[in-house]
Task: inverse folding
C-alpha cells in the first residue's frame, strides 16, 4: 500500500479555529477492518490518545477475534457491524455472537452517548451492503422483519434522544443515497456498469428528518473501498452539505501496509470538532507503530481565527466585499 502524498485538496471555510486545544474533540475512525486489527493498533491508540474510536464495520468474515479485541480498547468506542460480519451465515448466529461480545459498544439503530468525551453517536442499520434497501437473511434472522421507513424511524428516534448540547455523529457501514452516482463518488458503485448511487435510502431519509430538528455534525461510514476496481483511481471520500453536515468514507482497504522504506503503516481517518460540534479538520492518516505520523491526506480544514479588527464606523459595507461564499473544493481521497 502506498498512500498518496500528492493531489491533496483543502476546503476552507470561515470558521475560526479555537485557541484552547482542550476544547477540541478528536475522533479516530477505523474503516473497514477486514481482519486487519492487532495489538499494535491498541498501542497506537495509547500513543495518539484520541477522545474516542469509531468503527464502521466489516471486522472480518464473521469471526470473533476482532470483536473480542475491541472489548480491550481503553478509550470510549462505538461500532456498527457490516455485511461481511455475518460470515455468509444466513442463520445470523455469527452476527449475533459478535453483537453479544460488543455489547453496548455496538450502536446499530441505537444512541450511544460517550461521556467522556461528550459525544452522541447514533448507529444506522447494521449489516447493510448498500444498494438502497437490501436486507440480508442474516440480518432478518437476528432483528426480525422491518421496512425501509421503520429502519429510518429507528435512526431518527435514536437521534432525537440525544442530548442537544452534544455533537451528533451518525455511524453507518454504508453511507446514504444522495452523495453522487459516479463510480468515484462516496457511495458510487464501481464494480459493475453502469455506475450508480449505492447508498442506503433509509439512512438518507433519517438524516433528512434529523436535520429538520437538530444539527448533524458528521456522518461516517465505509463499505465502498477507496481504491476503485480495475485500477480506475481513488474514490472521493469527503463531502460537506449545505446544512453543515460532513460525510466521510473511512474505508481505506487494506488499512495495514508497508511503505517503500519498509515502515509499517496503520490507517485511521481523523476528525476534530470544537466544543460546539463544528468541524475543524478531517483527514486520512497513516501512522507508524509508535505513533509517528508518516503520511496525511487533508480532506477539510477550517481557517485560522483572524486577529481582532478595530471597530470602524462606516455608513456602508467596505468596498469589494459582498455576500459571496468561499469557493468549495471537494477532495479526492
Result:
Amino acid at each position: 500500500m502506498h498512500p498518496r502524498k500528492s493531489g491533496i485538496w483543502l476546503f476552507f471555510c470561515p470558521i475560526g479555529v479555537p485557541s484552547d486545544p482542550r476544547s477540541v474533540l478528536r475522533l479516530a475512525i477505523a474503516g473497514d477492518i477486514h481482519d486487519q486489527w492487532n495489538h499494535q493498533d491498541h498501542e497506537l491508540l495509547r500513543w495518539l490518545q484520541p477522545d474516542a474510536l469509531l468503527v464502521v464495520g466489516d471486522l472480518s468474515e464473521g469471526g470473533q477475534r476482532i470483536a473480542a479485541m475491541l472489548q480491550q480498547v481503553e478509550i470510549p468506542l462505538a461500532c456498527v457491524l457490516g455485511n461481511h460480519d455475518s460470515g455468509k451465515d444466513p442463520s445470523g448466529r455469527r452476527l449475533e455472537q459478535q453483537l453479544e461480545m460488543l455489547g453496548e459498544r455496538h450502536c446499530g439503530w441505537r444512541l450511544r452517548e460517550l461521556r467522556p468525551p461528550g459525544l452522541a453517536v447514533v448507529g444506522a442499520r447494521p449489516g447493510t451492503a448498500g444498494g438502497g434497501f437490501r436486507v440480508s437473511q442474516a440480518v432478518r434472522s437476528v432483528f426480525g422483519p422491518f421496512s425501509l421507513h421503520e429502519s429510518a424511524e429507528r435512526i431518527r428516534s435514536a437521534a432525537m434522544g440525544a442530548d442537544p448540547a452534544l455533537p451528533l455523529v451518525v455511524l453507518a457501514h454504508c453511507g446514504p443515497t444522495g452523495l453522487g452516482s459516479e463510480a468515484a463518488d462516496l457511495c458510487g458503485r464501481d464494480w459493475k456498469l453502469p455506475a450508480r448511487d449505492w447508498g442506503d435510502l433509509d439512512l438518507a431519509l433519517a438524516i433528512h428528518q434529523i436535520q429538520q430538528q437538530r444539527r448533524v455534525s458528521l456522518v461516517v461510514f465505509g463499505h465502498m473501498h477507496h481504491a476503485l476496481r480495475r485500477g480506475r483511481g481513488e474514490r472521493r471520500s469527503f463531502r460537506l452539505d449545505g446544512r453543515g453536515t460532513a460525510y466521510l468514507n473511512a474505508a481505506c482497504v487494506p488499512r495495514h501496509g508497508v511503505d517503500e522504506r519498509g515502515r509499517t503503516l496503520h490507517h485511521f481517518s481523523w476528525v476534530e470538532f470544537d466544543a460546539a460540534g463544528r468541524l475543524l479538520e478531517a483527514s486520512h492518516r497513516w501512522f507508524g507503530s509508535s505513533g509517528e505520523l508518516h503520511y496525511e491526506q487533508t480532506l477539510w480544514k477550517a481557517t485560522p481565527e483572524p486577529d481582532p479588527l478595530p471597530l470602524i464606523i462606516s455608513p456602508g459595507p467596505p468596498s469589494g466585499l459582498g455576500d459571496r461564499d468561499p469557493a468549495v473544493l471537494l477532495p479526492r481521497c
Remarks:
- Confidence is low (pLDDT under 50) at residues 4-21, 310-333.
